[in-house]
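no rush on this but wanted to send it before i forget. theres a chain ive been looking at and ive put its sequence and its fold in token form underneath. i want to understand how the tokens follow from the sequence so walk me through it. thanks a lot i owe you, the record is right below:
>
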Amino acid sequence: MTTPDTTVRVRFEGGRGGEAPLTWAQRFMYDVVESLRGQDTHLNFHIRADVPAGLSAEAVAAAVRTLVERNEVLRTRFHPGPDGEPVQTVLASGTVEIGLVDGVGPDAVEDFCAAVRFADHEWPLRVSLLCDDDEPRHLVVTVGHAAVDQWAAALLGDQLTALLAGDAGGTPPDGEQPLDRARFEASPEGEQLRQRTLGHLEAQLRAAQQTLFPVASRVPETPRYWIGELDSPLGGIAIRKAARRLRVPATAVLLGLFAIFVGERGRTGAPLMLIIAGNRHTEAAMRYVGQLAQFTATTVPVDPDSVAATVRAASRGLLESYSFGQYPTLELQRLVETVGTQRGVALDLTTTLNVHHSDADMSPVSDEAFAEAVAQHEGATTFGWLSKLEVENYKLYLDARVDDRLHLWLRTDTAVISPAGTEALLRGMEHAMVRLATGDLKVAELMAQTGTPASSPATGDERVVDHSLVDLRDCLRLVTDATGAPAAVAVEDGDRLTAWVAPADPATVTPQDLHAACMAALPGRRTAMAPQHYVVCAHPPADPADLAQWRALPVVASATGR
């Protein structure tokens, strides 16, 4: 880690100050950062600008001053309020420090910024001026993710470059700032947006499988979470041609293929995928310097007869869901709990796709040009491990960027997919893009060509109940472990999991008690679910394994327990 040789303090006078609750998007990312317990530095944005030759350190400092005065989020502190809930405090004036480092070249920039972590009550930025023989060469501004998203970081980069070049252009004075956003979210219009978005998300949650990973766990590696990186020059051309041929955005190609590979591993016919919504739908939002990105969700129905049809379905879901990405994150958490309790499942929303904005050339690619690219780039794809983490919030998190190449980064929980499986998944997605560029194939063909085990239908005691693959033996263990009583379970009326339970004192135990106990014991049991109906029996049968005897017992109470 390179430390500053000296520090310059820059006084700013920003004009407006104030305090407000965090915006919905700020709170979303604030909670992510806090949950990582200090291992969040990879989330920071490092904005680098080359300093024009001959520009003095004083002129650079003046550009930084203007940048901070103009963008309130750069002079905002995120911290717990009096009630413990996080708030944002914008200061009208203050001081920003610029660390001066001499004798450091561009290659040291990433290392210089790698360990930056922002604490409560601290500005969400660090400014470093890298010099060569005391001549300013590079300016690096590191900004925390709770303050800005990728789009906003790019806006700041554009402003910084313009200011260093002597151009006073940038965010208009009347542009919306985070304090304005917080007021909107508390308004009647914001309430309408909240209700509309949560309604969409609730519909997705009610149709979601409990987990995309009902398969057996493996012993995780140490550290547990690995980030694999695939770089493919051919993939950049293939996804462009496939997207044009199928008339879908490149993001839909990525989402559809990711859903196929995850769904096959998890034996899920229609996986629910979290995707990052940029929420930049208006001109004002396009100019907004702050955090706007949040998760939204879409179900991707996998068509076993056509990978192309799956990608088109992903495109339809993607375009719809992008309109439902703004909501209070705590209310989504409560909604997940409520829907899960009503359905009897512990919803696992830990598989995510994030496609970074890029200015990729999406012009048509002829068949001849594509054939030449296949020959030219054969064997040029590289894969490696970027880093390994002890803490991560998601089992699978796919980052993607498309420019003249395809860049994929997959953060993997090695308890659900092995390191070799991670590489196979990314290479499989690349292979599928190449195939889709000129044709189509069945999902089983794709699995065979990429060496991915194909999913199998439910067998034996396995059942699909309320969109979720469960094992009746595990459901029975859940009920007996949770209640401490003899029990039996069965699927009745096509899709209703029923439990018969004989508590020691049946007169004092209600179906509500049984359901609460089962829900408390459910987390971590990926092939079990809480029954949808409970029958409290007066006593156990002579043979607890005989379902007919359970059905013949005197009934004390019978209800859903909800």
User: Anything to note?
Assistant: DSSP finds 17 helices and 21 strands in the chain.
